[in-house]
Design a protein that fits this description.
Length: 291
Amino acid sequence: MRTKPNRNDPCWCGSGQKYKKCHEPIDEKISYFESQGHVVPTQNLLKTPQQLEGIRQSSRINIAVLDYVAEQIRPGISTEEINTWVDQKTREMGGIPAPLNYEGFPKSVCISINDQVCHGIPSPDVILQEGDIVNVDVSTIYNGYFSDSSRMFCLGEVDPEWKKLVDVAKESLQVGLKEVKPWGFLGDMGEAIHTFVKSHGYSVVEEIGGHGVGLEFHEEPFVSYVSKKGTEMLLVPGMVFTIEPMINMGGHEVYVDAENEWTIYTDDGSPSAQWEITVAVTEDGYEVLTW
Ligand code: MF3
Ligand code: CO
């Protein structure tokens, strides 16, 4: 439901300005795009300045935790150890690891190695090896606000082809970011990333994507990286979502681990890489919250 205040009343976003000077023109523009048949964000997806500040603070912890992992990750340790680092560091900074018990997820972080695409479950039995490419995906709750980001780590000597995959996955975020601006569409970003990744001969996972984030772990919209320009949700200042394409060296097909029902693998056993950032749409472009 969209609340429409009186024009001279304070804006719904809490800025303290009159509605007519603040969100009225934005709301009117949204209604116009909606009348043209576009998918538009509901009001709860447009974060108020105060909510944005909360998500920023959560993001700061999220980044600090990843920095902490970066300092210590190495071959020979178990993924359970990384889980302990993430859990302890997050709590030490006043946060809560969002993955723990999320829809039954048993650990505080997702760690996905080589042909694991995402949602790898930390375990004392999984020991990192020289040559592994490892995604560590950290999601943080602070003061009720959610942030989400992940990085790849190349352990020791990594096959140059695999390193290239990791680099292209990282670069794809920059390619996507160029398309993040108000009154564009999520599909502009999806198509730009897909085209870029394909130009390197890689594929993009289709079934799993990014998501709105901030007041909850996973909010609308679903963020696809195989979508088309001019389609998907209209981008409006205040929206916060993740960019996190999963890039496979081989085919895009994936399957879910039958035993743990979480971990996603590439069908063909080829390696997969993913970097993730939390991004806000601003009045003139974007703000990356998790860098
Ligand atoms: N960070 C993952 C994401 O981007 C979280 C998956 S849910 C979990 O959506 F329970 F596995 F953490
Ligand atoms: Co995410």
